[in-house]
Amino acid sequence: MKSKMWVRKALIVAAVATTSGTAFATEGGGSIYPNGAENYLVAAIPPPGVYVLEYLSGYSADKLLDNNGNPAPINFDLNVTAAATRLIWVTDQQILGGQLAFHAIAPLVHVSASVNGAGQTKSGLGDITFGPALGYHASENLHYLYGLDFNAPTGQYNKNDMVNLGRNYWNLEPVFAVTYTQPSGLNADLKVMYDFNGINNETNYRSGQELHADYALGWGFGNGFVAGIGGYLYQQTDDDKVGGIIVQNNRGRAFALGPSLKYDNGKHWFITAKYEREFDVKNRPEGGGLNIKMIIPI
User: Fold this and answer.
1) Is the model's pLDDT at 7 over the cut of 80?
2) Which among 19, 76, 80, 230 has the fewest CB atoms less than 10 Å away?
3) Strands of the sheet with 241-242, listed across from one edge
4) pLDDT band for position 186 (50/70/90)?
5) What is the pTM of this model?
């Protein structure tokens, strides 16, 4: 009976896999936000203009952990690759002393999952993100921003499928990010987010609220290169509900850490790369992945 329960949970995991590590805390354990996607220069809004960022990511996991951090007694495999294009418009307008900017992200996702030999694969558009932000430059080295992201259920979803490309609900995500950067010396970045999840009307399921943060810490060598570490922290802060009834012992938790690199040519073009492994996981898959970010002014 316990094995059947784990198989059911693993199928739910696969059903909501999106652009990063997913699991069975929250509905199916997935999250709208691809944890760990951000890296250095997360809050350094560039001068007014239009910019394109490209995010490339790959994630794989072969263990599914329970509320005690123990692996499920099943054969489980999850692989997700994504290419997300982010368009940023930094305006000339200032509000409350901050530079007004708008952005939108459209991810293309490829997901494959299998549980005890049964599997499914899908590719296509995931859930789109858009919203405004206010960016501040406290000094030449210190930058911060406030944002409010809206995540729309644009990805394909069928509650009867093992794999889906979207979450099938709206999400509201306040954002705070800070960057300390210098060519030679300490570089540090933190992006903190809090998720308010809507109801999946296909399943009458409301995922719990989520607190999560991407981080990076490194050292600049004076030649455009920064090397250090990066990752993310994730904690579900309240319980899921199905038809208004609380789902017990289902809150997700994870910590990720790995090497992180950046190259900046000093002319508003840069690339970052990070490989991270997940630790201290509960109610989620445990795996690892590579995240690459590039910005190109147009």
Assistant:
1) no
2) 76
3) 199-200, 205-206, 241-242, 245-246
4) very high
5) 0.91
